[in-house]
Design goal:
The chain is α/β, with parallel strands linked by helices. It has one domain: P-loop containing nucleotide triphosphate hydrolases (Rossmann fold), CATH 3.40.50.300. Helices cover 35% and strands 19% of the residues. The protein is built from ten helices and twelve strands. The strands form three sheets. An eight-stranded mixed beta sheet has the order 5-6-2-7-1-8-9-12, with helices on both faces. It has a two-stranded antiparallel ribbon with strand order 3-4. The longest helix has 14 residues. It starts with a strand and ends with a helix.
């Protein structure tokens, strides 16, 4: 992992907030800017990254040197448990120690090569996988928290933020996902999931608010097709909002190791 410059965790307090979509599109946005990027799908039980990047069914090849990551769009290097199991329908029924060992293997034995960024997509909550990544990678650049716009966003994000701070890892900021819906016919915006919960949570928790991403039904369709929306639909309000999030995030990087 010494050849990886910036290691960034994408985390949420609960499921269903679009965390994996944010992780995949962040990796894509960085790769589109000319960076060497990898993404680690650390969700042992429900790995979605391979499907979202169009490499579902691929396999990581092993050798004495280690595991070779699967190459995705824009030469993004991808590691996931999905690449290591024979039948994707088989559930992984493991206790904590086995999950920590699997995370350790994915971090230490994957031949990432020289990377500018490694994006780590965690499962929801503050369980074994999250703890394992933070314990095994104390040099993490930081964590990005993803929430939805409801007022309960503060409740959903507080425990995740407290965990990260207890591990003495910087929180790089908070993203409010599914923030309003733009009608594809008339362009009118509707706050179908409420509004302002993420911004209020960032203020309450003293975090940098990185931006709000509107809901776009095309993003779901593109994810199912294995095509990140930031590349497939760059002129949409969602893609433009995501670009703003990336521009707000990049200046936050590098400061921890510069001290």
């Amino acid at each position: 992992m010494k050849s990886v410059k910036h290691k960034i965790v994408i985390m949420s307090g609960k499921g269903g907030v679009g965390k994996s979509t944010v992780a995949v599109n962040l990796a894509t946005a960085l790769a589109m800017r000319g960076h060497q990027v990898g993404i680690l799908d650390a969700d042992i039980h429900g790995p979605d990254v391979p499907k979202m990047l169009g490499v579902e069914g691929e396999r990581m090849m092993g050798s004495e040197a280690g595991l070779t990551p699967v190459l995705g769009p824009l030469n993004i290097r991808i590691a996931s448990m999905e690449f290591l199991i024979q039948d994707p329908d088989t559930p992984i029924i493991w206790r904590g120690p086995l999950k920590m060992r699997a995370i350790s293997e994915l971090l230490s034995n994957v031949l990432w090569g020289e990377l500018d960024f490694l994006i780590i997509d965690l499962p929801p909550g503050t369980g074994d996988e999250s703890l394992s990544v933070m314990q095994l990678l104390p040099e993490l650049e930081g964590v990005v928290i993803v929430v939805t716009p409801q007022e309960v966003a503060l409740l959903d994000s507080r425990k995740a933020v407290m965990m990260v701070r207890k591990m003495k890892i910087p929180v790089l900021g908070l993203i409010e996902n599914m923030s309003g819906f733009f009608c594809p016919h008339c362009g009118e915006r509707t706050d179908i999931f409420g509004s302002g919960g993420g911004r209020n949570a960032a203020k309450e928790l003293n975090l940098r608010f990185l931006g709000a991403l509107p809901f776009d039904h095309r993003a779901m369709q593109l994810s199912d097709e294995g095509r990140p929306f930031i590349a497939a639909s760059p002129d949409t309000p969602l893609a433009k909002a995501f670009d703003e999030v990336v521009e707000n995030l990049l200046p936050r990087l590098g400061k921890r190791h510069a001290k």
